[in-house]
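Input (structure):
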């Protein structure tokens, strides 16, 4: 693959990732919306994606005009071009210079422009970037201990941190607004005066039931804003007509449950669609290599896809499972392998490499068992063949996916140390999307199905502000005969939940950074088509 093809693959991967995540979150929020309407709750807004575009002329308040924004975009385009050309042409100075401009110079320029429009002091504007960079360095430290870091890796982390910091700064008007204000209405105090700073969607339309449906600007999810979801110290949220808390705890429980249920159901339907139209990949238990991982033992020995293994250490091989058994019991032991390629019999030596972390033990029918162990591997897998399933069999096969996922989650609870190898965040999802994009649309859809089910399970975790945490509160209120918990208890639960959620995000981010900066013992899990 040449440089331009690789760049195109990256762009296509980004598009696939944004579309998949946006659709999955929209489906999840659709569950909340539909059941909320079913129970007579007013949904003020249903938005696909997040974050609007500022629609106010703040520049007219400036004593000195800012340089037109097109110059900022031009500078960013030049810097991005430098990164791309420097990467593909292996010009380190151009690559690092472009990254430094994108990660530090241009963000500082943008922050000062936004700060000037919002009436913020210079120090306050730059402080957002400083906090972001500090958080990035902390993540680098905890994930890599700062060992063997390259300048490009550090600048990439700073670029990510700068992007988040600038988004937080840009949306300050709506982040500071009162809880009960309408969606998109922001305000600032500039020069001692209250200034309205509205943000508008890219497209919107208000339905007869009062819900504003809209497409926003950032492909980061979406939301269904149900009326009256903010608890009050005086309990007045229970008296808002059509409000969330005006309904029974049971109704609220079902509304919260609907999002995860829709996510899991959507994933199952995707699996059924794929299994009935494209088919499921069934393993062929023949001693023929289906794929070889670059840089692993089999590739080093010269083996390629399609080679048929005849014998190992002089003993005949009839099934691929026999190869697995021999390999996993022989870490770092040279094995004499005889194989056939295009009718010609050849010989080589393979030295299996021991995994540095436990992985699922493969059974005799080439399925993954729940048992985990450190094993020797040679970086080659078996052949598969697609097999279309009938509707009933497809449903039965699809149901095994959430069951396996649930079993994996319980396994993590029993053995948290596995999280380092089995959990991933946006980086891991991006890598999986890249691999799926290379494999084709069907694998992208297979990945989307798995992610949808994962989204459902994640939101069932009993931690506020996730759906599961709020469901626990509703369940407790059901046990109390419908009486609301005190505002003090609600605030305490929300605070603890937010701390746990931020800790989870930080942990996943640390795992991702360690994995992709080469410090982890194991790469991100590969994308595979489910087998049975």
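Output (sequence):
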């Amino acid at each position: 693959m040449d440089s331009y093809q690789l760049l195109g693959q990256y762009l296509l991967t980004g598009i696939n990732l944004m579309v998949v995540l946006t659709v999955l979150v929209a489906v999840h929020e659709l569950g909340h919306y539909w059941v909320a309407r079913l129970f007579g709750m007013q949904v003020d807004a249903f938005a696909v994606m997040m974050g609007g575009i500022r629609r106010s002329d703040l520049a007219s308040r400036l004593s000195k005009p800012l340089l037109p924004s097109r110059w900022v975009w031009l500078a960013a385009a030049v810097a991005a071009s430098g990164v791309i050309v420097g990467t593909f042409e292996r010009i380190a100075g151009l690559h690092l210079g472009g990254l430094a401009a994108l990660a530090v110079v241009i963000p500082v320029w943008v922050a000062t422009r936004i700060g000037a429009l919002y009436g913020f002091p210079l120090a306050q504007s730059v402080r957002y970037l400083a906090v972001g960079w500090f958080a990035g360095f902390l993540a680098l430290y905890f994930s890599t201990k700062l060992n063997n870091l390259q300048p490009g890796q550090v600048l990439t982390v700073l670029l990510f941190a700068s992007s988040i910091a600038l988004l937080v700064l840009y949306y300050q008007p709506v982040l500071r607004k009162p809880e009960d204000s309408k969606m998109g209405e922001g305000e600032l105090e500039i020069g001692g005066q209250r200034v309205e700073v509205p943000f508008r969607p890219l497209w919107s339309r208000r339905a007869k039931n009062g819900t504003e449906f809209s497409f926003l600007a950032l492909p980061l999810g979406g939301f269904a804003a149900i009326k009256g979801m903010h608890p009050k110290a005086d309990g007045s949220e229970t008296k808002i007509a059509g409000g969330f808390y005006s309904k029974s705890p049971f109704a609220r429980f079902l509304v919260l449950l609907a999002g995860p249920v829709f996510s899991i159901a959507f994933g199952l339907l995707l699996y059924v669609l794929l299994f009935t139209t494209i088919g499921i990949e069934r393993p062929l238990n023949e001693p023929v290599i289906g794929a070889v991982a670059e840089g692993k033992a089999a590739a080093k020995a010269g083996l390629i896809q399609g080679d048929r293994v005849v014998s190992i250490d002089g003993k005949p091989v009839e099934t691929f499972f026999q190869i697995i058994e021999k390999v996993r019991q022989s870490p770092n032991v040279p094995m004499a392998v005889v194989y056939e390629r295009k009718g010609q019999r050849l010989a080589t030596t393979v030295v299996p490499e021991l995994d540095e972390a436990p992985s699922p033990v493969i059974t005799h029918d080439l399925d993954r068992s729940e048992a985990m162990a450190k094993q020797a591997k040679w970086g080659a897998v078996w052949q598969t063949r697609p097999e279309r399933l009938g509707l009933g069999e497809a449903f039965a096969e699809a149901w095994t996916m959430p069951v396996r996922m649930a079993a994996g989650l319980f396994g993590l609870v029993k053995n948290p140390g596995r999280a380092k190898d089995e959990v991933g965040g946006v980086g891991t999802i991006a890598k999986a999307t890249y691999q799926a994009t290379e494999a084709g649309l069907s694998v992208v859809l297979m990945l989307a199905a798995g992610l949808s089910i994962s989204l459902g399970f994640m939101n069932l975790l009993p931690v506020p502000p996730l759906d599961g945490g709020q469901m626990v509160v509703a369940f407790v209120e059901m046990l109390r005969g419908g009486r609301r918990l005190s505002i003090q208890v609600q605030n305490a639960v929300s605070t603890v939940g937010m701390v746990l959620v931020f800790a989870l995000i930080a942990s996943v981010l640390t795992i991702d950074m360690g994995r992709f900066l080469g410090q982890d013992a194991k790469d991100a899990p590969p994308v595979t088509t489910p087998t049975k």
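Notes: DSSP finds 15 helices and 18 strands in the chain. The two ends are 33 Å apart (CA to CA).
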